[in-house]
Amino acid sequence: MNHKASHLLHAAVSAGLLLATGQVKAQSPAEQPYQGVIGKTLNDSKEWWAKPATPPAGAPNIVWILLDDVGFGASSAFGGLIRTPTFDSLANNGLRYTNFHTAAICAPTRSALLTGRNSHFVHVGGFSHIALSAGFPGWDGRIPSKDGTIAEILRDNGYNTFAVGKYGLTPDEEATDVGPFDRWPGGKGFEHFFGFLGSQTDQYKPDLVEDNAHVTPDGRHLNEQITDKAISYIARQQKIAPGKPFFLYYSPGAVHAPHQVDKYWSDQYKGKFDAGWDAYREAVLANQKRLGVVPANAQLPARNARVQDWNALPADQKKLFTRFMETYAGYLTYTDYQIGRVVNYLRENNLLENTIIAVIIGDNGASKEGTREGVITPRTNPARTKTEEEFLKTNLVNIDSIGTPAGSANYPLGWAQATNTPFRAWKQDADAEGGTHNPLIIFHPRSIKEKGGIRNQYGYVTDLLPTTLEFVGIKAPEYIRGIRQDSIQGTSLYYSFNDAKAPSRHLVQHYYIFGSRSIYYNGWKASAAHHPDNVDFDFKPGQIVADRSFDEDEWELYNLNEDFNERVNLAKKYPEKLAELKKIFDEQAEKNHVYPLIDWYDVNNKRIHHPNGSDTQGPIK
User: Which of 50-64, 129-143, 252-266 has the least mean pLDDT?
Assistant: First the structure.
């Protein structure tokens, strides 16, 4: 590594430590040392009471919104063809961050978001599910108490804390009504929770939890239920303690499969996608250029080899595939509507003006899990073991169940690539921007001067916690409930709120999801796909997945400052730069407990074992 690179890397690492060094110790009332005088009698004693936790003067309300499985080019707020008027309004009155990143899959993203630390560092390199975790420090799926969440920090600083929707970080074996509840939302700082603990659920028959118990769903769509609950939490709090700040984590299961939504919403898109996914990509890229969320000279990467040429498809396939997309689009617009209900409630009750809202449109890129033909019935359906032609016939027979409570729909690969415009690859692919590049909106009317501003600074999901703390004026605590805390690893984006030209401060970031991996360093990126032609949904029940040595992987190199969507591989042109970045990846992997590298071969061939006798197997959710 050259001197300049070494200096920049040192600066990046140091920046991640600043929030934890030289800071005062934040203490909850129970931790404050007794400051009175205890004599033998009351006359020679002096009473003392611990001061209750209080937020900073004028502290804003905080709302974090995290959607599921939405590509960069889906929402109209970032040039997509799916109407999201709530997001549009927040972005037009706030800031659009065009260079923000997630971990490429849900649980790692959520663990990094809530803790401000890298996912492997907090033990969520895979999932908290038995089938997708492993007995190593970076992989066991159990966030340590020394890596406290944003909810714990805000709770101990005088906020009420609420979460609704998808949590996704409770180990399977602990997700029953007998607990233990340490890793339920209530054990991680949320005073109230209403939603589901796993990675996905049926939207009409959800695996529903309220606080520390499972409850019976009422038959309405889950998005409507979680929105009602979020509003009720705020309303109850403000009635009892007007002006007390709150933190709401609103994380719907939408628009993860199953794509289920009332026909009122999906029918609004009848005929809107008849031109197909190739035309969609072209139209979205043009919109993105007009909005300024991609460079003016941006070009589309080639259509993925697994995606069919739309114009070559027969009419029955086009009919089927457009219905999948109409449903997905209606589902996203419906989700935007429900979020709009929360925003409108805040506005109508004079709370919006001092509420900072952060919207991450997707915990990863668009999902590749819908197969070439799309999925209507669950993967366990025997038809999935048949040929693609036979599976296509099954889908055509069941077309009317797409989007309904009877279906378990997920759209085909072509629409995944389209809604990921302008990037290549998709969810699970930590090597590619299509897996990790998601929109971020920041809204706070009182402090953001440039309404509708564009921000191109590099950001990662760990950055939202330190951004929020700096904005509110709260120090990252040295201790939470008596437990010494690890350093915050994210880099606050607050410096960029009113300075569009400020240079990026987040200079180094690694990515790893089941074999695919990459390293970002000061505008450059090195990546390896590992199994570039294998997609988990192609594995039939009982199929043995071919092993492949990590040493066989071909690393690629991109200059993202000049080639933001990875069209020109520079590995052969700049081998020294590639070697430099690979070394940085190794350093970051060591530091963050990424090793041992675990991939789909290990998962599907049952090479991971658990103490309860349950072997690892099954698809990522």
Answer: 129-143
User: Which residues lie below 8 Å from residue 162, measured CB to CB, with a gap of 6+?
Assistant: 190, 191, 192, 193, 230, 233, 234, 246, 247, 248, 249
Query: What radius of gyration, in Å, describes the C-alpha atoms of the chain?
Result: 24
Give the rounded percent of residues in the chain with a pLDDT score beyond 90.
Answer: 81
Cβ atoms of 36 and 48 within 8 Å: the answer is yes
201 with 256: CB under 8 angstroms?
Answer: no
Section 55-84 average pLDDT: 97
Cα–Cα dist 141/124, whole Å: 5
Amino acid at 370: G
Question: Residue 275, Cβ neighbours under 10 Å: how many?
Answer: 15
Q: Does the global pTM surpass 0.90?
A: yes
pLDDT (0 to 100) of residue 616: 40
Residue 606 in any domain: the answer is no
Q: What is the 3-state secondary structure (H, E, C) of 173-238?
A: HHCCCCCCCCCCHHHHCCCEEEEECCCCCCCCCCCCEECCEECCCCCCCHHHHHHHHHHHHHHHHH
Range of the domain at 253: 59-520
Residue 392 lies in a domain: yes
Q: Which residues contact 536 (CB under 8 A, 6 or more apart)?
A: 369, 428, 600, 604, 619, 620
Nearest to 149 by CA among 509, 488, 609: 488
Instruction: Tell me how far apart the alpha carbons of residues 61 and 127 are, in angstroms, rounded to a whole number.
Output: 30
Q: Quote the pLDDT of residue 377.
A: 77
Indicate the range of 31-35, 96-100, 155-159 predicted with least confidence. 31-35
Neighbours of 264 (CB within 10 A): 9
For residues 171 and 193, what is the distance between their CA atoms, to the nearest angstrom?
17
- Range with lowest mean pLDDT among 104-108, 134-138, 167-171: 134-138
CA nearest to 410, candidates 422, 395, 421:
395
Distances from the Cα of 250 to the Cα of 48, 78, 200, 361, 401, angstroms: 39, 20, 15, 12, 28
Q: Is the pLDDT of residue 507 over 80?
A: yes
In 3-state terms, what secondary structure has residue 138? coil
Q: Does 312 reside within a domain? A: yes
pLDDT digits (tens, 9 = 90+) for 361-402: 999 999 999 988 999 976 444 444 567 778 788 899 999 999
List the CATH number of the domain containing 203.
Answer: 3.40.720.10
User: Residue 364 corresponds to which tokens in the numbers above?
Assistant: 């990863």
What would the pLDDT profile of 177-211 be if each residue is shown by its tens digit?
999 999 999 999 999 999 999 999 999 999 999 99
Residues 267 and 517: their CA atoms lie apart, in Å, by 39
Q: How far apart are CA 60 and CA 569, in angstroms?
A: 45
Placement of tokens 């970076």 in the chain: 138
The label of the residue with tokens 């990126």 reads: 525
Which pair of tokens denotes residue 226? 């979680």
Give the number of domains in the chain: 1
pLDDT averaged over every residue in the chain:
90
Q: Are 131 and 142 in contact (CB under 8 A)?
A: no
User: Would you say how long the chain is, in residues?
Assistant: 621
In a domain, 346, yes or no: yes
Average pLDDT over residues 579-594: 98
pLDDT given for residue 30 in this prediction: 54
Decide: 382 and 103 in contact? Cβ < 8 Å. Answer: no
